[in-house]
Amino acid sequence: MYSLPLRRRRGAAVVSGLLAAVTAFAAWAMPAATATAQEGRIKGWGANDNYQLGGTLTTAKYKPVTIPGATGSDIDSLAAGYYHSLSLLSNGTVESWGRNAEGQLGIGSTSAQEQASTVTGLRGVVAVAAGQQHSLALLADGTVRAWGLNTSGQLGDNTTATRTTPVTVAGLTNVEAIAAGAFHSIAVLSDGTVKTWGSNGNGQLGDGTVTTRTTPVTATGLASVRSVSGGYAHSLARLADGTVWSWGRNSEGQLGDNTVTQRLTAVKADNIATAREISAGVYHSVARLSDGTVKNWGYNAQGQLGDGTTTNRTTAITLDGATNIRAISAGGYHTLVLDRDGKVSTVGYNNNGQLGDGTATNRSTLATPVNSLSSVSLIAGGGEFSLAG
User: Considering just the CA atoms, what is the radius of gyration of the chain in Å?
Assistant: First the structure.
């Protein structure tokens, strides 16, 4: 949720997730003919109390609707925070919409946006990530920009001042991938090491301390990292060998090491050997394997692990019914998967219709594909909403 679920065309490394930070309904049925992704428009469903889905109404949407003003036809990636969203266009600019009280839309004000607006002063962007109330952009030159809430130093500019337009993260160069946790940020460097900054009360920065950092520090003991993802207070890293490492809060088993012990430095998640993508929800974690199956672990009270129960899992289990999967994204308390036929399926919390099945009923097994969508190539899970393009 707090990281980038899938990028369409660019060559930079991919990151996945919630609280891209996460977090993050009156029923509305759109005609199927207008809800197909091949039109090149971004669709969304679920909570809309902060204009996460745009439009003049703030009622939840139980089925996909079109995001007003979003370019859609030329989009490389999507990122969803708790209450706001980002889209990266193929020309290297970024659009944003939703809540903006903390400046997380990057438009120079704190006014919420009912339709997609262009982030101020950004060019040459190759990846984006959305935290709970902050945003990140990776530029082609290997530097990182950040904007929004900064009370925990999550913007990395050596201050705790909130920013309504992008600022440069201090001292970062040669970055190849980024991710945003709820109140912390993560970057992978070209040498495979990891830098982190922001909130650290649960050790989510992985530097062996619980000290908040306003500039990047090195996460201990990690090498050959290819992608990262951030949850509410935990972090994930996927290594070149297909293993997954994790650190931070673990009270719900979200680190996957068969314990509920908080970790201040990275530990290896059990039962994962061929991961190709990772995504962190608020308190759960998801991995897509090379064979197109999906593993997940951690918090499961809303059924987001998809094993037919609401039992937390401290080691990875298989997401039943997920086969031939090409992309994953963990929302706040729900999970999305995209198969190679362009169909989106969902599982977990559904209080605001974020599963897109026309109801507000939680699901502990993977729901049938969201039937008004087809030819989807991008997904992103927000706090209590979902996006597809």
Answer: 18
* Burial (Cβ within 10 Å: 0-12, 13-18, ≥19) of residue 361: exposed
Residue % of the chain over a pLDDT of 70: 89
Structure-model confidence comparison of residues 361 and 20, the more confident one: 361
Cα(241)–Cα(225) distance, rounded to whole angstroms? Answer: 9
Q: What is the pLDDT of residue 10?
A: 38
Task: Tell me which residue of 362, 371, 335, 372 sits closest to 5, measured CA to CA.
Answer: 335
For 14, which DSSP code? Answer: P
SS3 state at 162: coil
Q: What is the dihedral of CA 270, 275, 278, 282, to 10 degrees?
A: -20
- Token pair in block for residue 68: 């007003």
pLDDT at 367: 83
Q: Which residues pair with 327 in a beta bridge?
A: 338
**pLDDT tens-digit readout, 295-347:** 999 999 999 999 999 999 999 999 999 999 999 999 999 999 999 999 999 99
pLDDT at 162: 98
Q: What is the DSSP string of 343-381?
A: -EEEEE--TTSTT-SSS---BSSPPPP-TT--S---EEE
Query: Cα–Cα distance between 386 and 380 in angstroms, integer?
Result: 6
On whether the CB atoms of residues 50 and 112 are closer than 8 A, the answer is yes
DSSP-derived letter for residue 364 is S
Distance of alpha carbon 322 from alpha carbon 335, whole angstroms? 11
pLDDT of 72 reads: 60
CA distance 77 to 318: 26
**For residue 225, which of 215, 235, 213 has the smallest C-alpha distance?**
235
Average pLDDT, the chain: 90
Region 142-146: mean pLDDT is 98
Cβ contact 137:151 at 8 Å: no
